[in-house]
Amino acid sequence: MAEPASLQAVIRSCLDGVAATQTLSPRQWQVCHHVLDCRTAALGGLALSCDQCEAAALCYHACRDRHCPCCQRRASLEWCASDNARPCCR
Ligand SMILES: [Zn+2]
């Protein structure tokens, strides 16, 4: 089954090819690895379980990088809904 489309999937499939042909700055590498590791076991997480039904789930930590669409989606939506996103007509 194909992986769902996401920036994480694009970076995972393209980073090695890009790195072979271009020089990324340390910050660009850092952002790519933040997005790659976001909400995966690489950043650790919590094992949650229900006392009632004994259901269990893993909840991984987020990268919180400002470039990560998973972490910044809510902030982006809030900004788009705010007055700052409206074009200036003055
Ligand atoms: Zn993230």
Descriptive report:
- By secondary structure, this protein is of the alpha+beta class.
- The protein has one domain (7-85).
- Helices cover 44% and strands 11% of the residues.
- It contains 3 helices and 2 strands, in the order ααββα.
- It has helices at 7-21, 26-37, 69-81, and strands at 45-49, 56-60.
- A two-stranded antiparallel sheet has the order 1-2.
- β1 (45-49) and β2 (56-60) form a beta hairpin.
- α1 runs antiparallel to α2.
- The protein is flat, with a radius of gyration of 18 Å.
- The mean pLDDT is 89.
- Zinc ion is lined by residues 38, 62-63, 65, 68, 70-71.
- Written as H for each helix and E for each strand, in order along the chain, the element string is HHEEH
Helix content: 40-55%
Please tell me the total number of domains. Answer: 1
Distance between the termini: 52 Å
Radius of gyration: 18 Å
- Specify the biggest β-sheet: 2 strands, antiparallel
Number of strands: 2
Average pLDDT works out at 89
Strand order of the largest sheet: 1-2
How many helices?
3
In terms of structural class, how would the helical and strand content be classed? alpha+beta
Ligand catalogue? zinc ion
Label the overall shape.
Answer: flat
Give the low-confidence spans.
none
β content, as a range?
A: 5-15%
